[in-house]
Specification:
Blueprint (H helix, E strand, L loop, with lengths): L39 H31 L7 E4 L2 E5 L6 H8 L5 E6 L4 H5 L8 E4 L15 H18 L2 E5 L4 E4 L2 E4 L2 E5 L5 E3 L3 E5 L9 H16 L2 H8 L3 H21 L5 H14 L12 H22 L4 H4 L13
Parallel strand pairs: 8-10
Antiparallel strand pairs: 1-7, 2-3, 4-5, 5-6, 9-10
Length: 344
């Protein structure tokens, strides 16, 4: 976990890994918009805001896909994914203006297609391409209740996820009448979500959530991948469930944070990144951002964390040289007993 603030007021639709995505709006849906009914300055501002959010989300999804795909051989829970992320304009703060800005008749469109994923490789899923059908379903026909629009986007992602599991493929129809079929590939079961506000990075067992203002967005891709790998490590190691069983004391939190730090370079290496990027991330981020941590000592100091990370790298490099992959499922030394707290 990194940072100290995170807004969950608005979240993007998630990469279709485990099929659940959230987007929350505090405004009621407004329909019947046209570009002529909205001031040009509003349209320009809305387009810029959407583009900024999508650019950050694209970066997160690209990195998340590489990590989830590159470590699939070692994750306990694996799911089918096409790397497609949807958007529902009813979940935006100002849906009427968003529709006018993007020129949409409906609400659903491509948010991102993660680099290297089936959706991206197909060439059909350009950002903001309007989508009319998910399989045989028209998501625009589903009701979007006031102040609960995120439920419709969740339903859309759940629907796609179910089709991928049950049929091993999905056909998506576009507003222009064309369609494209996608076949999934297996990935580690974690969703990656971008919050429109806040500077925190966190994981909850199923999702990795990062705020738009997180400082790591300013780093090169490999260092940014370090923080995503840290949060993914919490999920693949089952830390949320472990804390639920064993208590969220400072000692326990410190143990799982150290374990996530140490797994960072393993996840990076299997995704094709230099494992040293985990150290570079910590030495870039730590001196400026972990002062608040020292008040409760639930984490090691940033310099200690960098040392623990660096200590994993010789073993990782040896495994890469011998096997081309670093099997953390059998070779990584745990800080905690993953079975601790289970009843006999």
């Amino acid at each position: 976990m990194f940072g100290n603030t995170l807004s969950t007021t608005i979240r993007s639709g998630a990469l279709l890994i485990s099929g659940v995505a959230l987007a929350v709006s505090t405004l009621a849906v407004a329909t019947g918009a046209s570009a002529s009914s909205v001031r040009p300055s509003q349209l320009a501002t809305e387009r810029a805001a959407i583009a900024r959010f999508q650019a950050a989300d694209q970066r997160l999804q690209d990195v998340g896909w590489k990590l989830a795909r590159g470590n699939v051989a070692f994750c306990e829970t694996v799911v089918p994914s096409v790397g497609l992320q949807l958007q529902d304009l009813a979940s935006y703060g100002k849906p009427r203006i968003a529709r006018a800005a993007l020129g949409f008749e409906g609400d659903f469109a491509v948010q991102t297609a993660a680099r290297g994923s089936p959706a991206a490789l197909s060439g059909a899923f350009a950002v903001n391409r309007e989508i009319a059908r998910l399989g045989s379903a028209d998501p625009n026909a589903w009701e979007a209740e006031a102040r609960r629009h995120w439920e419709r986007l969740t339903r859309a992602h759940d629907h796609v996820d179910r089709l991928l599991r049950e049929r091993g493929r999905i056909v998506l129809g576009f507003a222009d009448g064309s369609q494209s079929e996608l076949q999934p590939v297996p990935v580690c079961a974690t969703r990656f979500e971008l919050a429109s506000e806040g500077a925190r990075a966190m994981a909850d067992g199923e999702r990795v959530l990062i705020g738009m203002e997180f400082p790591g967005f300013e780093y090169d891709e490999a260092r940014f991948a370090g923080v995503v790998a840290h949060e993914l490590a919490h999920n693949v190691l089952g830390h949320s469930d472990w804390l639920d069983r064993n208590g969220r004391s400072q000692r326990n939190v410190r143990r799982i944070e150290r374990e996530a730090d140490r797994l960072m370079p393993w996840l990076l290496a299997n995704a094709g990144y230099d494992p040293e990027a985990a150290v570079r991330f910590m030495t870039s981020w730590g001196p400026w951002n972990d002062g608040w941590i020292f008040r409760n000592r639930s984490h090691d100091g940033w310099d200690e964390r960098a040392e623990f990370i660096a200590g994993e790298i010789p073993r990782i490099r040896a495994l890469l040289a011998a096997n081309r992959k670093a099997d953390w499922s059998t070779q990584f030394r745990r800080e905690v007993d993953p079975m601790a707290g289970f009843a006999d």
